[in-house]
Amino acid sequence: MDNRPSHELFSRHPNNPILSAKNWPYPANSVFNAAAAIVDGKTLLLVRVEDFRGISHLTAARSSDGVGNWDIDPAPTLKPEPENRPEEIWGIEDPRVTWLEELQQWAVAYTAFSRGGPLVCLATTKDFRSFTRLGPVMPPEDKDAALFPVRFGGRWAMLHRPVANLPGVSADIWISFSPDLKHWGDHQEVIRAREGGWWDANKIGLSAPPLQTPQGWLVLYHGVRTTASGSIYRLGLALLDLQEPRRVIRRSQEWIFGPKAQYEREGDVDDVVFPCGWVTKDGIVFMYYGAADSCIALATAKLSELVEFLLKCPGD
Ligand code: BMA
């Protein structure tokens, strides 16, 4: 059944929300904002779990169909280590994962909540059981980061969202480059928040990692609309040039997904849809998103429809 509102490109799964704290094998306040990957033929979600102190860690959940029968690690998979890693004092959040074919490893970009504010950290893993931390790669405030799966001109590339705490300055998506995953530079703005009354005015951030298509890198991003009763997190799409990812080829004008269902509209933070991962199976994109900072939901779309839609949108 097609349950999409007319301007939305994704269909919500009828079993939504597919994961919540009541499914968790140990006490948790909320489970949300999960990275997604296909690992050994199964869908793996690296889930942000918030405990009853308000501190988050990451736990892996695996499923054969990516919808149900989740096999959830019985204890935190990747825990903050403030003893060795002071930047993780208030937890680790919102992971995005990218398969690096060249290194035969997954790169996990996550937000560490430091005393100085949120910052971007990287870790690598082969199996989502043991991880090698590369440490902070962007100083605060910076979050919503994900790697591209390939190098450009010999360098790795990462999208991320720095914030300057100045009135009237927007929070935009930037790109940075690295020869070794550890040292990052050549920082440049790629997608700028719109202005005024737009749904994505003033503050945007990357959602799921960039997805390679023959027409370009498909980028899913969130726009944060500030209203009298709080923020509304909605989603848009952009297409970046395959060889030159600093170049935006297309960008959606309207949002393509926003809070509608009750589990998206009401929770710890109302009116939030926040995907950190998507996977493609047989041409269908499975988008996993945190709903209202409380649970995880799934929505699907045809990859070809997303790209066709974007190709009809104007350039940035
Ligand atoms: C963002 C991030 C997300 C969260 C969202 C809505 O700034 O912190 O983790 O889902 O706010 O609260």
Word description of this protein:
By secondary structure, the protein is mainly beta. The chain has a single domain, classed as 5 Propeller (Tachylectin-2, Chain A), CATH 2.115.10.20. The chain contains two helices and 22 strands. Strands 1, 2, 20, 21 and 22 form a five-stranded antiparallel sheet that branches. Strand 17 and strand 18 form a beta hairpin. The longest helix has 9 residues. The model has no long low-confidence stretch (mean pLDDT 97). It binds beta-D-mannopyranose. The site of beta-D-mannopyranose has 9 residues, from strand 7.
Features:
Tachylectin-2, Chain A; 316 residues; binds beta-D-mannopyranose
What is the H-and-E element order? EEEEEEEEEEEEEEEEEEEHEEEH
Overall pLDDT: 97
The quaternary structure here is single chain
Morphology: globular
Total strands: 22
- Radius of gyration, in Å, reads 18 Å
- What share of the residues lie within helices? under 10%
Class from secondary-structure proportions: mainly beta
Secondary structure tally, helices: 2
How is the biggest beta sheet arranged? Answer: 5 strands, antiparallel
- In percent, how much strand structure appears in the residues? over 45%
